[in-house]
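Researcher: Next sequence.
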Amino acid sequence: MREHAQRLQGLGTTIFAEMSALAVQTGSVNLGQGFPDTDGPDSLLEAAVAAIRSGANQYPPGRGIPALRQAIVDHQKRFYDLSYDPDTQVLVTTGATEAIAAALLAYVEPGDEVIALEPYYDSYAACIAMAGGRRVPVTLRAPDFRLDVDELRAAVTPRTKVLLINSPHNPTGTVLDDTELRGIAAIAVEHDLVVITDEVYEHLIYDGLQHRPLTAYEGMVERTVSIGSAGKTFSVTGWKIGWVTGTASVVTAVNTAKQFLTYVSGAPFQPAVAGALALGNEYFDDLRATMQAKRDLLCDGLESLGFGVHRPQGTYFVTTDVRPLGYTDGVEFCRMLPEKAGVVAIPHQVFYDNIEAGRPLVRWAFCKQPHILEEALNRLAKLA
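Model: Next structure:
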């Protein structure tokens, strides 16, 4: 039998599958894969149950049910003063991952270059490859993980088609600031680039910082594919309800690819998410405060154990440098950790083309109950 397509070479089993399997085999505390261990608000869960019982179990409309599209429009206006038409400028997707895949398939021709901020979520590399594109990394370097706008500008070539921007950034937790976003916008306008923005952690930003949608910057409306998701905001990562907002032509382009991926999904979850997006500010404020407390619990604990800790501005991941503990390779450290300490984490270097930049770094998820984080820290004390 012939080998699979060359563009899939090296994509293999994800590091998340490998480390989650290790967690099960060893009975480890899993701080690797980024999913919370508590469910979302009761009103959201009950709304999904009610939708199932009322018969919302067949194909929904291709672009998403009207109530959810309107709720997404209302959300964007409420939080960012951005205006969209729910009928032509919103597309519901099977999570943000499908939205990213469909956007890349919509805009990337074979040989086109896609600039992505490195380290990058692993699906970025896979989706760029499946679209026939070539990824070009711009590295956010430890310890502060800020974007060097001059380096981004230097990465643009005549083959560059897309900037793939993630803020709040997974896995570093960096929240791009106004200067960085203005720099990105200026480069995109100057070179007539499409910008795909992954904003799934928009409500998980700490220390009083604010999310700034890139589409709000001058010249960006016509060229930006904005992507959001319910999974992180409402602790329902398994529901896979995401969305795209943009101009009518942008949404049509993305839908042209999306309709041949899953077509539609999540019929009973869509009305539930529509209701959740309208929850009062108290919900979003409590979510942020609760997650910031968990961030501080884990960061303080890891610092006390001797890790070099980068305290994130957003997301629910913290990055550490393992060299102060005498280790030099994050992959070796993470493969050793379940047996030695009964904890699972994710090595950064799998998110890099520039392997050396990520070699000593390890990512930990803090979206767990406090007693789970405390148990993990107690176990990690065995490394001392």
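Model: The two ends are 50 Å apart (CA to CA). The mean pLDDT is 95.
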